[in-house]
Specification:
Putative methyltransferase (TIGR04325 family); SAM-dependent_MTases_sf; 11 strands; transferase; seven-stranded mixed beta sheet; 276 residues; globular; methyltransferase activity; Rossmann fold; methyltransferase
Length: 276
């Protein structure tokens, strides 16, 4: 318990206060932290550095570390009991309100159909709803193997949005920030005019807009944080209205030596198309 308290104090000091910025100016401190943060294998969600682009962040990943989510080791993360994060219930509520019988839902970055499994464990989907998960090839293969064993029903796994086709409802939870152009990818989806869009676990900041690196255990990946107002404006500009927004209190972005970049909680958003 004492160790946990000390860890919390250290995190607050390094990531959320001016003390962290001052410590980061000491010679060798940032380099030493980077070595520690990028090579840890037994923890997930460790952030490091601030970058101006995907390419710049990728170049900072050590050559002897796996990068991105397209690896069997990354896919193995989903071979675990389903978590019960509070924000899941907000997204499930909006899916229950928006899905209609016979709808097609595309779930970008859905892992092993995590949200579909959490939803159906608590309430049935409308009759005839078909759920397509779009994932990296490695994760899609893992999900498909579960489906083949009969562990999943009514779910298809593909490794590209083109393969998924058009949809009535588009959903994504905690995946767009790992993509080279997540907002651009969303724009391409909106061009196909889904009726509704539900997004969860988005790292949205009040003022900042930047890239960082996240070590999620098996690998390291560039990680995008968007300015909240810009993100919402990009979606509404394509003919969608913001129906609801909620706080994702279980997730935060703490980057040592960068207190100005601290994101205290992530966000969830639900949009509906404005034209008939």
């Amino acid at each position: 318990m004492l160790t946990s308290a000390l860890t919390s104090v250290a995190r607050i000091s390094l990531c959320r206060s001016g003390i962290g910025g001052l410590i980061g100016q000491a010679p060798g401190v940032r380099a030493a932290y980077s070595r520690w943060a990028l090579y840890r294998l037994n923890v997930g969600g460790v952030f490091n550095g601030c970058f101006g682009s995907w390419d710049e962040a990728m170049a900072a990943i050590p050559s002897d570390r796996l990068a991105g989510w397209d690896h069997d080791a990354a896919a193995a993360i989903f071979d675990a009991p389903l978590s019960r994060q509070p924000s899941v219930y907000a997204s499930m509520f909006w899916l229950s309100q928006l899905l209609r019988p016979g709808d097609r839902i595309v779930d970008l970055g859905g892992g092993a159909a995590i949200t579909q499994r959490l939803h159906t464990a608590r309430a049935p989907l409308p009759r005839g709803v078909h759920w397509t998960v779009v994932e990296t090839p490695a994760v899609a293969r893992f999900g498909a193997s579960l489906a083949e064993k009969g562990d999943l029903g009514g779910v298809t796994f593909v490794d590209s949005l083109d393969a998924a086709g058009a949809c009535d409802v588009f959903f994504s939870a905690g995946a767009m920030q790992y993509m080279p152009d997540g907002l651009g990818t969303l724009g391409a989806v909106l061009a196909k005019r889904p009726r509704a869009v539900v997004l969860n676990k988005l790292p949205l900041a009040a003022a900042a807009d930047y890239w960082t690196l996240q070590n999620f255990g098996p690998a390291v990946c560039p990680y995008r944080v968007w300015r909240r107002s810009d993100f919402i404006a990009a979606v509404t500009a394509q003919g969608y209205a913001l129906k609801d927004a909620w706080d994702v209190v279980e997730l935060a972005c703490d980057i040592p030596f960068h207190p100005e970049l601290y994101v205290p909680m992530f966000a969830g958003l639900a949009f509906v198309r404005t034209d008939p």
